[in-house]
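dude i think i finally got it to work??
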Amino acid sequence: MRRVVRGFWGPRPESAEALADRWLRTLEGLTGLVPEAADAWSQVHADGPATAITADGDALLGAVRAARSAADWSDLTGTGLRMVGTGTPGWEAEISGVAGGEPEFLLQSIAVVLHAPDDASVPEEDLLALLARVWEPDFGDVSDDDVLDALEDEAGFSVEDPAVGRAGYLSPARAALVPEGLDAVRRQLPGGGELLGIAVPGDTAAVVRACERLREAGALAPLPRPMDRAVL
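look at this
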């Protein structure tokens, strides 16, 4: 089964050292939560084959600095990296992110795509909580293809609209707007944001209902464009 765990935020300039540290904590955290998926990591490049990379500070700092030295790099856009982890047969993790920039219209993001056997137990909410702690996003979700299709077809959500999936993360200002009586398990995280447990796999109707209620309450309002801050 393919799962997607994501976080999004607005402009937040950061040094190469700060980004490398976030990447290191992400790789280490994912390996701790899902060791089956990431015995070894490779970096995927825009040109040429993937190359092996160790999950340590020096290697990741080198990767960030190399990305920033590319001819088409812009501090307005941010620094993009893509890693693939391989492990036990049937498991695979891919992490991609664009961060550290000052975009006015395109959100910064981190996404974990996890492939696992259909009957495997995967700590989806813990993975989302990891991204929330490490990257401090504005909002985030745990989704799959069925959830994303349902939100688009049944609720009119587009790709960059703030949304939640089977689980969701909301930054403090968004969490303060969650309506009373929302059918979700709420868990406060360090820093004041909240993790929402909304539905089990396959229950897309519950996800659509939750997103519609949160949107009506203003908790899923988009960041104003041009963007001038990282979170609502």
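Strands lie at 2-9, 40-43, 51-53, 79-86, 92-99, 108-115, 139-143, 167-170, 185-188, 194-197.
im so relieved honestly
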